[in-house]
Amino acid sequence: MKPKILISACLIGENVKYDGGNNALHVKILEQWKEEGVLVPLCPEVLGGLSVPRPACEVIEGTNRVVCKSGEDVSVAFAKGAKESLRIAQEEGVCMAILKARSPSCGKNIIYDGTFTSTRVNDSGITCKLLQESGIFVFSEEELALAEAFWKQKG
Question: Number of structural domains, the chain?
Answer without folding.
Answer: 1
